[in-house]
Amino acid sequence: MADIVISQEAKIIDGKDIANKIKDELKEQISQYVAQGNRSPTLTAILVGSDPASQTYVKNKMIAAKYVGIVSNTIELPESTTQDELLNSIKKLNMDTGVDGILVQLPVPNHIDERTICNAVAPSKDVDGFNEVNVGRLALDMKTIVPATPLGVYELLRRTEISTFGKNVVVIGRSKNVGMPTAMLLHTDGNHESRGLDATVTICHRNTPPEQLKRHCKYADIIITAVGKPGLVQRDMVKPGACIIDIGITRVAAKEPGKTKLVGDVDFEEVRKVAGHITPVPGGVGPMTVAMLMSNTFMVAKILAKARQVNNCNGTN
């Protein structure tokens, strides 16, 4: 593993390139899997409402699924869908042996409780890793389905050979789907089932005073931010050679009238002058999230296929 490096300008961690390599690996593995007589893995996404960003996210996931050899389907429900109607749709997918992975695109409309919906997805088919059973297993350092974005961060660090053992890491953001599981993966024991990264982790959030956030960041070997607040991480908060992973994404006005652009939480142009490694936005963690969702889908497909084989041998349904 490479130590944190100090250079005149940070090395760009190309998440798009790494994600493409992962998808190519999955494509080959799934091709071999199907050639051995197994059916293709399947993924069903449920999209409630017509939020443009959610529609784009689901579309990108379906494109990636097709590329790697996963048969995908999207169930589109109107904004007016009740919670009970959505739960019924999930129940049908849970019972359908032809469906391997299930995801409900978040956020759901305000009249639907997100936690209830996440828990309704069968843990064995929960490719997002949001069911409380999978979250609990991650917290207990057990093998489980890890949420795709934290898993993408894990793979970025691993494949870029950024040293994490004993390093100081600051995670900015404590969301239950991104910040918390990212911190868990980083601090847990590499010898246990979750194959954690053995770092010393500090979690900062909206109630961390700015001067304390700066102090924590200046000691960090790795800063991972997932807040959605442009310009949150400035150059004077980063120690030379630190690795910066920017999960935040916000659409802001561009210089050209009427145009917009995507930015992260980090002042990229300034921070890259002092950091050792840095992810861009877009093109950093985003593509990795989609790639790891495909990886999770293939994983659950194989596990479910083995379970069906055992049940058939035992004469059960």
UniProtKB/TrEMBL annotation:
Q: Which residues form the Tetrahydrofolate dehydrogenase/cyclohydrolase catalytic domain?
A: 13-128
Give the SUPFAM superfamilies listed for this entry.
Aminoacid dehydrogenase-like, N-terminal domain (SSF53223), NAD(P)-binding Rossmann-fold domains (SSF51735)
The protein's Enzyme Commission number: 3.5.4.9
Q: Which reaction does it catalyse?
A: (6R)-5,10-methenyltetrahydrofolate + H2O = (6R)-10-formyltetrahydrofolate + H(+)
Query: Which BP terms in the Gene Ontology apply to this protein?
Result: tetrahydrofolate interconversion
Going by the UniProt record, its keywords in alphabetical order are: Hydrolase, Multifunctional enzyme, One-carbon metabolism, Oxidoreductase
- Which Pfam families does UniProt cross-reference here? THF_DHG_CYH, THF_DHG_CYH_C
Where in this chain does the record put each Tetrahydrofolate dehydrogenase/cyclohydrolase NAD(P)-binding domain?
147-302
GO cellular component, alphabetical, reads:
mitochondrion
Under the GO molecular function aspect, what terms does this record hold? methenyltetrahydrofolate cyclohydrolase activity; methylenetetrahydrofolate dehydrogenase (NAD+) activity; methylenetetrahydrofolate dehydrogenase (NADP+) activity
User: What HAMAP family does the entry give?
Assistant: THF_DHG_CYH
Q: How does it assemble?
A: Homodimer.
UniProt-recorded name of the protein:
methenyltetrahydrofolate cyclohydrolase
Q: What is the lineage of its organism?
A: Eukaryota, Metazoa, Ecdysozoa, Arthropoda, Hexapoda
